From TrEMBL:
Family annotation (InterPro entries): RNA_methyltr_E_TRM7, RNA_methyltr_RlmE, RNA_MeTrfase_FtsJ_dom, rRNA-MeTfrase_E, SAM-dependent_MTases_sf
Active site: K162 (proton acceptor)
UniProt KW Transferase keyword: yes
Enzyme Commission number: 2.1.1.205
Keyword Methyltransferase recorded: yes
Protein name: Putative tRNA (cytidine(32)/guanosine(34)-2'-O)-methyltransferase
Amino acid sequence: MGKFGKDKRDIYYRLAKEEGYRARSAYKLLQIDDRFHILDGVKRCVDLCAAPGSWSQVLSRRLHGEKIDNQQDDVKIVAVDLQAMAPIPGVIQLQGDITNHSTATAIINHFDGDHADLVVCDGAPDVTGLHDIDTYIQAELLLAAVNITTHILKPGGTFIAKIFRGKDVLLLYSQLKIFFDEVVISKPRSSRNSSIESFAVCRNYNPPNGYEPTMFNTLMDGECEKYFDNVDNQKYLTNRQIIPFMACGDLTGFDSDSTYPLNLDENYQYHEPRQMPIDPPYKKAIELRKSSALSK
């Protein structure tokens, strides 16, 4: 598919380039914020699994606003990812592993010892096409994000993360309810209907009495029991939770599963992607293909 074909196929991909976002996923966070107002009053924010940085761009634009250039406001945004990212105005970048305690410590240090008001995570594994495997790996990533969030999020804070709604997703809902008083599953308009992805909007961080944050995966079967045997937390004993599901985004707006025509007249201007990957894992394969060394 050529450049024009991709613009025609995906309206949010085209809009992202026109409005300066690095990826179409920016509109998912924009629509979540428009529906739930998660950025109201936020001063300290963390973007986990941030690359290529579209969510960090949204956070910077909405939290810094017009002060993004002079940096005189008291907003601090930390973006964390294993991969290197191109700089984003108003965002502190941290290259690290979210499963390491040192990463949590570095985040707190950037906040001068304070905790975050909001933690977001749009991370996802490279899908295999095998839905059960993809859902399991995504759940592992989500739980890792929850673990580090218990170190860096203040009581009453908000956590947003991508979730795959597989057949065993009710267990994940119950595990999230351990730490948050309110859990809502949201499906932005910019997320394709053909995708099983949604986003968990978790508000009012309230860990169980006696809970001590740890980088061990306390939510996995067989692991969490030893942490909660002595905790008065009846919510954990109920595996089946009724979790609200809400769509967000203008229902009369663009449909991410539709194809929109391009006005290919003399005024049409193709926009290149705003930020190409710095060191993608497929870089070597591209070089081999260009040199005709890659078997077809």
